């Protein structure tokens, strides 16, 4: 059981974190403070401001956060719980101005949300194999859909507020237990930090930017964002349960095919299929208003699952990025989450009241993302362009590898190196770090008696086998 302790606790903690955010933002229990503060504009903006402030702080001061992490581990959840309570009672007290209490509460609660996401992402990236990390993220999203339906359908308004106040402390308990779980890294090469991760970073950073735009747009402009309620076609307890199970099933299936099965694909193209499926959902969402009956319900389940998939994609990319060079989770999550928060604020401020124009906006944004994905694919193709030697050179690889006593692993590297493959390509194909590939190449050159790739190609073409060079 301890082997899966971190995976399970992070899944439960992250699911409850999403439940907390949904109760805070959408549940009837908080309808009174929202209605009483309607003059201040969209409360979601202030929540995002809290997220953005802490994200920027983590990105700018990652070492400081690492040093004080054990203190913040318990302090920030307490502050988040207090902020939730302050927002809930802001309009029911007269000692302080209600606006000040409410805004302070929602901002510090938003900061607490950012803290938890960074904490859980770091745990998965630093201790779990990729399969368990993705499984934990997807399980949390699927479980969240069910729990939100359960809590909002069963609990009274006051009970929902009480649960929201207690959730940051409950989530901290799961985080505490998760930290004491065992590591489950099954492939040391897969998780070994790269000695030179610059090439990999050049490949992953553009994908982070596209993922940020995708998840921000999906969260704002789909039925699970600001223009509607999730699964609003599934009324009644039984119907809502069926819809939630359907969303979970679609999410798990898509995540398995688009994320888990592609963990050993080339980094430059690993997440492209997921981007394309999400873009398809944008266009489907833009036309969904004309659907009726079973088709409308099925479409709503699919789009809701896609919203969850966009989050799973975003956090899977975060875990991958942290792994590349054992980067600080505070730096990686701070930068990516900060960009996401900033874009979300722009989306809310400018597009919240668009109404029927929403569909046109979805199509325009989807078109922009399509262009970005096409550019990204073309860019990756250009960066990984290979010069394949003549057939004579390729045909003699096994012969030369055997003649010069290359080890099985060195032979694998040599086979691809002789095709003109880059270190990054070989690293992705063999699921090892670029530093490990570099070491193998050095050994290969020594055994072949050459000083670089051109001399290796000369050897392959010369017909010499054992001659010293």
Automatic annotation (TrEMBL):
<feature type="transmembrane region" description="Helical">
    <location>
        <begin position="332"/>
        <end position="354"/>
    </location>
</feature>
<protein>
    <submittedName>
        <fullName>Helix-turn-helix transcriptional regulator</fullName>
    </submittedName>
</protein>
<keyword id="KW-0804">Transcription</keyword>
<feature type="transmembrane region" description="Helical">
    <location>
        <begin position="233"/>
        <end position="259"/>
    </location>
</feature>
<dbReference type="InterPro" id="IPR000792">
    <property type="entry name" value="Tscrpt_reg_LuxR_C"/>
</dbReference>
<feature type="transmembrane region" description="Helical">
    <location>
        <begin position="132"/>
        <end position="151"/>
    </location>
</feature>
<keyword id="KW-0812">Transmembrane</keyword>
<feature type="domain" description="HTH luxR-type">
    <location>
        <begin position="399"/>
        <end position="464"/>
    </location>
</feature>
<feature type="transmembrane region" description="Helical">
    <location>
        <begin position="271"/>
        <end position="289"/>
    </location>
</feature>
<feature type="transmembrane region" description="Helical">
    <location>
        <begin position="360"/>
        <end position="377"/>
    </location>
</feature>
<keyword id="KW-0238">DNA-binding</keyword>
<feature type="transmembrane region" description="Helical">
    <location>
        <begin position="301"/>
        <end position="320"/>
    </location>
</feature>
<feature type="transmembrane region" description="Helical">
    <location>
        <begin position="101"/>
        <end position="125"/>
    </location>
</feature>
<keyword id="KW-0805">Transcription regulation</keyword>
<feature type="transmembrane region" description="Helical">
    <location>
        <begin position="71"/>
        <end position="95"/>
    </location>
</feature>
<keyword id="KW-0472">Membrane</keyword>
<dbReference type="InterPro" id="IPR036388">
    <property type="entry name" value="WH-like_DNA-bd_sf"/>
</dbReference>
<dbReference type="Pfam" id="PF00196">
    <property type="entry name" value="GerE"/>
</dbReference>
<feature type="transmembrane region" description="Helical">
    <location>
        <begin position="199"/>
        <end position="221"/>
    </location>
</feature>
<feature type="transmembrane region" description="Helical">
    <location>
        <begin position="157"/>
        <end position="178"/>
    </location>
</feature>
<keyword id="KW-1133">Transmembrane helix</keyword>
<feature type="transmembrane region" description="Helical">
    <location>
        <begin position="45"/>
        <end position="64"/>
    </location>
</feature>
<dbReference type="InterPro" id="IPR016032">
    <property type="entry name" value="Sig_transdc_resp-reg_C-effctor"/>
</dbReference>
